[in-house]
Write a structure and sequence with these properties.
CATH architecture of the largest domain: Alpha-Beta Complex
Radius of gyration: 22 Å
CATH superfamily of the largest domain: Nucleoside Triphosphate Pyrophosphohydrolase
Mean pLDDT: 94
Number of strands: 19
Low-confidence stretches: 1-13
Number of domains: 2
Shape: globular
């Protein structure tokens, strides 16, 4: 049987880091037990230690990036196995949840820290493995009956003893970079500090885009308007969809937007969500990215979110116009 052609989502300019992939998920194979049995014997396995933040082994690449370590199935730990898909060369790829041990030439990293350093194939593999694994860890028992569940459909569903199925779920969330719409160096963007973020040992205060979950019966666009109003008291004049990516911690799909607002509006902060917010110039953002920005008024060093996040993607895209 010929594998169906898949759209190439790799090497796209302006693609969020964890939205990149070249993997054919081969969903039509998930119920083909004979094919799956053969695919396991000739497949490669990505081991992810979900108990320790979703760590996987990588090796360093000469270009400064990292590459995932995939093991033959014969060397895989004895654990539930979940089929991720088929690589570009036809090799089946699986994932299991088990501990990993670093070595002289391999180190353990998380998707948060290394997602932007992976190539398109590995970014897609690691993201899918963490998202799928986190769902399995939270659904060992049926929420309907409390009965234990087992893996079916090659890891893309679980069944209770009566055969009732559960499928992986993704929770939609919005994230938005609000800016003033001014081009060039004079333009400013709005970032906030989440009240729940702990203080860092070095005193650096992190600022990011505003975000929140899409509520039942609500569109993503309406969620953007509501969350910005609730968190900082700012009304938007326009918004534009900018892209999406999985954020599997534990299971979100981040829908990214850019929005325009008038900086003359006063902040009305929700102290349970945002304890500090500022309008930052492009020069200040560039210095944050370079790692050398100190707020001139408070003397506090400030930073941006991790490069694997869609927040960083939205900020950088605005920075470069």
């Amino acid at each position: 049987m010929t594998e169906p052609e898949q759209p190439d989502l790799g090497e796209q300019p302006g693609t969020p880091p964890l939205a990149r992939t070249t993997l054919d998920r081969a969903a039509h194979r998930r119920k083909d037990d004979a094919w799956l049995a053969d695919a396991w014997t000739r497949g490669l396995v990505l081991v992810v230690d979900l108990a320790k933040g979703g760590r996987a082994l990588v090796t360093d690449r000469p270009d400064g990036g990292v590459a995932l370590v995939l093991a033959p199935s014969s060397a895989s730990p004895d654990a539930e196995r979940w089929f991720l898909g088929v690589d570009a060369d036809g090799t089946p790829v699986w994932t299991v949840d088990a501990s990993v041990e670093a070595s002289a030439d391999q180190r353990a990293v998380t998707l948060r820290d290394s997602g932007h350093l992976l190539d398109d194939r590995d970014a897609g593999l690691f993201t899918a493995a963490v998202a799928l694994g986190n769902w399995h860890r939270s659904h060992a028992f049926s929420p309907r009956t409390g009965q234990p569940t087992t893996v079916v459909e090659a890891g893309w569903a679980r069944a209770d003893p009566e055969g009732r199925l559960m499928w992986p779920r993704t929770d939609p969330a919005m994230i938005v970079l609000v800016h003033d719409g001014v081009p060039g160096p004079g333009g400013r963007c709005l970032l906030g500090h989440n009240a729940a973020w702990p203080a860092t040992p070095d005193g650096v205060r992190r600022f990011s885009c505003l975000a929140g979950y899409v509520e039942p019966g609500e569109s993503a666009e309406a969620s953007v308007v509501r969350e910005v109003q609730e968190e900082v008291g700012i009304k938007l004049t326009s918004l534009q969809y900018a892209g999406s990516q999985s954020w599997p911690f534990p299971g979100s799909l981040m829908l990214g937007f850019h929005a325009v607002a008038d900086p003359a509006q006063p902040f009305v902060l929700d102290p349970e969500e945002i304890d500090e917010a500022h309008w930052f110039t492009r020069d200040a953002i560039a210095k944050m990215i370079a790692g050398g920005y100190v707020d001139p008024e408070s003397g506090v060093p400030m930073s941006l979110p991790m490069r694997s996040s869609i927040a960083f993607y939205l900020i950088e895209k605005w920075l470069h116009g």
